[in-house]
């Protein structure tokens, strides 16, 4: 009869890790991720180049009069009006950020810490509505305030989300009433 420790001594355990193969796979994966990131960045730059015909954004004036409404929240981006997936990236309009919106009789002031501020004159405002999504951001139905405005020869939709979503309805009403008043006043002249 043989003893069990003799059989155990004769068996050779398999090598646990092939370090060279593992390091090779990790380096290959890192290079692949870097390539994908670089291609995405090049696509973003190319989109900005294609949208180069968009004029510079109007700067926020020193004085815009008393505020009708103010909102603090998030800016989620701008798209071509009616095409919620066609993101506009030229002039920083594709950069998500915090936002401070102020609506006055002069227009809409968009102040974005860490991104370019801009101003939408009252004459350029077309409408406001509640929606559920804009390029890269989808929320519950009515969770996004979308303001349509004219810039150059394009209509743009800009998406905002207030820190207090109950404010959205007041913004829709105020922006749409400004548009109605300007159309009515312009027709009366």
Question: Could you name the key traits of this structure?
Answer:
PH-domain like, 189 residues, alpha+beta, elongated, 31% strand, 10 strands, disordered C terminus, PH domain-containing protein, 3 helices, membrane, single chain, eight-stranded antiparallel β-sheet, 32% helix
Structural overview:
The structure is a single chain. This protein has helices spanning 4-10, 19-50, 168-188, and strands at residues 69-80, 87-88, 97-103, 107-111, 118-121, 125-131, 133-134, 137-138, 144-151, 154-162. A hairpin with a 6-residue loop joins strand 1 (69-80) and strand 2. Helices cover 32% and strands 31% of the residues. The protein has a domain at 69-188: Pleckstrin-homology domain (PH domain)/Phosphotyrosine-binding domain (PTB) (PH-domain like, Roll), CATH 2.30.29.30. It is an alpha+beta fold and 189 residues long. Residues 183-189 have low confidence and may be disordered.
């Amino acid at each position: 009869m043989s003893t069990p420790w003799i059989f155990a001594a004769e068996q050779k355990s398999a090598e646990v890790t092939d370090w060279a193969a593992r390091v090779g796979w990790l380096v290959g994966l890192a290079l692949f991720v870097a390539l994908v990131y670089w291609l995405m960045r090049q696509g973003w730059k190319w989109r900005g180049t294609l949208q180069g015909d968009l004029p510079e954004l109007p700067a926020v004036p020193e004085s815009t009069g008393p505020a009708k409404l103010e909102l603090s929240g998030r800016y989620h981006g701008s798209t071509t009006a009616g095409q919620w997936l066609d993101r506009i990236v030229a002039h920083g309009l594709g950069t998500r950020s915090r936002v401070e919106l102020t609506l006055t009789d002069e227009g809409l002031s968009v102040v974005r810490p860490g991104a370019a501020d801009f101003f939408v004159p009252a004459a350029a405002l077309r409408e406001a509505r509640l929606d559920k999504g804009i390029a890269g951001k989808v929320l519950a139905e009515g969770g996004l305030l979308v303001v349509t405005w004219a810039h150059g020869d394009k209509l743009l939709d800009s998406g905002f989300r207030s820190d207090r979503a109950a404010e959205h309805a007041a913004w829709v009403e105020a922006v749409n009433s400004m548009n109605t008043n300007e159309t009515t006043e312009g027709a009366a002249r």
